[in-house]
Amino acid sequence: MLRIKNLKCYYGRIMAVKGVSLSVKKGQIITLIGANGSGKSTLLEAICGLLPGWEGEITYEGFPLKGLDPPAVVKHGISLVPEGRLIFPPISVLDNLKLGAYTMYRKKQHAAVNQTLEKTLDLFPILKERAKQPAGTLSGGEQQMLAIGRALMSHPKLLLMDEPSMGLAPLIVEKIFQILETLRNDGITILLVEQNAQAALRIADYGYVFETGTVVLQGPASELLADQEVKRAYLGKDYGEFYDDK
Amino acid sequence: MTSHQTRNRICYAVFSLLIIVAGYTIENPYYIQVLTFIGINTLLALGLNMLMGYAGQISLGHAAFYGIGAYGTAILTVHYNLSPWMALPAAIASAMIVAYIVGIPTLKLSGYYLGMGTLGFGMIVNILFREWSSVTGGASGFIGIPTLELGPISFSSGRNYFYLVWGFVLTSFIVCQRIIDSRIGRALRAIHDGEKAASAVGVDTRKLKLQVFILSAAFSALAGFLYAHLIFFISPGTFSFIASIRMVTMVVIGGMASIWGSLLGASLLTLLPEWLHAFSEFEMVVYGLILMIVMIFLPRGLTRGLLDIYERAVKKNDR
What we know:
The structure holds 2 protein chains of 2 kinds.
Chain A: E1 2-11, E2 14-24, E3 29-34, H1 40-48, E4 55-60, E5 63-64, H2 70-75, E6 78-81, H3 93-100, H4 104-107, H5 110-123, H6 125-129, H7 140-152, E7 158-162, H8 170-185, E8 189-194, H9 197-203, E9 206-211, E10 214-220, H10 221-226, H11 228-234, H12 239-244
Parallel strand pairs in A: 3-8, 3-9, 6-7, 7-8
Antiparallel strand pairs in A: 1-2, 1-4, 4-5, 9-10
Helix pairs in contact in A: 3-7
Chain B: H1 3-25, H2 29-54, H3 63-79, H4 84-106, H5 112-131, H6 133-136, E1 142-143, E2 149-150, E3 153-154, H7 158-181, H8 183-193, H9 195-200, H10 205-231, E4 233-234, H11 241-254, H12 259-275, H13 283-297, H14 301-318
Antiparallel strand pairs in B: 1-4, 2-3
């Protein structure tokens, strides 16, 4: 569905992604894990058209995404849930969701948008309760749900998620990840960038491990979860525990 | 129809009624004149509020568009003998074209840098008005701008002009309200809150910022046109840097992202100097003091501030 070949991204003169290749299969959750600053978010921004001037090749269902601006990418059916959620705080929850359907109004009728709105609110009942509240008054978890809901409003086939667990309590993270599984079962493909490697690998089908702008390891999620090296570096097992096991 | 829409319709109905009644009952030509100026300033504030209050893009050079509207109609009607009604669309169109050309490079900037960019633009245009004497009359001003006439109606008397200006204000209010309530209005507010997030949901931020910049330039030019045919004389001083700052002040004092705030801000900033004549040489001191007090106690502007006070009073009564 999504194929990335030898992608190189720059911030000024700094190369943040150094020739990454990966592919996302339809109907799967693919996760990119790795430490801060390893280039995961940069890669997502390149896909969305938010980061111009990358080199390499990104194709979505055979269609090259090079040179497309963010609205065009959204119209292709790719939607981003940005890092830090980036909801619009003073605007009501409902209007935040409607903004997610910004590109849909011209193509479809208002009725169709309202239908999507209903569906999204059914998925997140808490948002329905708070529909009229300014989005900034929501709790962190609710804001994350709003960000996901907003992304779903444009009928994406591919959902790009940037650190959905950031700053959330473990229980809420679990809830969010359950929602991601539901979405996958509904046929939405998800590219999930996470620092919480354990949670991400548990729901993912396939994973890539990033380190300073390159992919150092990849494989089926279950294998990565069991991999000693991944355990040591990303799953919070320290050396002592690691060697004691032996 | 939602309650929000109904409320708005009632507001506009009451507002139109007030305009009609005011025009009929007020006899004093001085009051009519002041109210007409409030109308012109409201158009200025409204246009800038769309750009600043809603889309969050500051402009410190909007007096340039005000001037282009005024000088545009002056040049076309006096030098080229064009009817003012032909000059009106031409003047507005020139302001929009200038906004388009200036907007493409400047709107890439944001925050302080956008402020600086538009400031420079405003100064350049003002210098043009001042120095291009053969066309604009230079520093001594442009005289002989004709009276507006529509068939048998002449817009020279105070009352007719009052209705003309406030008719434009009412129409502009309704146009802006419709924009704000649409998906475009939501997108503008989204740009205000975060450009990156706005583009992530598919808003073409660059295009929309340019469009709202052009729209606000059009409102300023309309105000300039009305000003020129009211006073019959224009000079560069009216469209200087100070005028741009006054426009920004109207928006901030009245209330950002509020249509009625534009009206309140324009009213206060037009009326204050009139009231403060009594203070003679201390006029500017008191003027500055009042603005400071408003900003300290009602930091979100008059509209929001007064609403907050009202809501607090209602809550107290309920208890």
